[in-house]
Specification:
This protein is an all-alpha fold. It has one domain. 82% of the residues lie in helices and 3% in strands. It is built from four helices and two strands, in the order αβααβα. Strands 1-2 form a two-stranded parallel ribbon. Helix 1 packs antiparallel against helix 2, helix 2 runs antiparallel to helix 3 (80-108) and helix 2 runs parallel beside helix 4 (115-130).
């Protein structure tokens, strides 16, 4: 596999990971408008766990991609054209991440009907934003 081919592979894997993550949140929001039961809350926690793991997987794709791009331009393993395409890849990843934030925020600001779940829901949401691994 060529040097640029490896960068392309990492980019495609990151896109697939992004699509899976966005789809999961979108499906959850389509079927749940609020946290109205312990069962819905458990479904939400499962979603958040997967999202947190997928974020780490995304880092595993994007960090090497970034390193390879930077190293490739410095060592002339990438042509100028390939480096421009690499920058475009990063732009696509950035834009997709920005687009997905809205649904993530919607999932983190759902109405919780059961008062006994409110604090737990907020704790899971805090963990989602502030921690690398689920702690719930």
């Amino acid at each position: 596999m060529s040097y640029f081919g490896l960068i392309l592979l990492l980019f495609v894997l990151a896109l697939i990971n992004t699509a899976i993550a966005f789809s999961a949140i979108k499906n959850f929001l389509a079927s749940h408008t609020m946290i109205d039961s312990p069962r819905t809350f458990e479904t939400f926690k499962q979603l958040v766990r997967r999202q947190m793991i997928q974020a780490l997987v995304q880092v595993a794709f994007l960090l090497p991609m970034g390193f390879l791009g930077g190293y490739g331009i410095v060592t002339h393993r990438l042509t100028t054209k390939e480096f421009v395409v690499f920058l475009l890849f990063n732009g696509v990843v950035f834009l997709l991440a920005k687009m997905g934030k809205g649904n993530e925020e919607r999932a983190r600001s759902m109405k919780v009907i059961d008062p006994t779940l409110e604090d737990q829901y907020r704790a899971v949401c805090r963990s989602w934003v502030r921690k690398a691994l689920p702690d719930f």
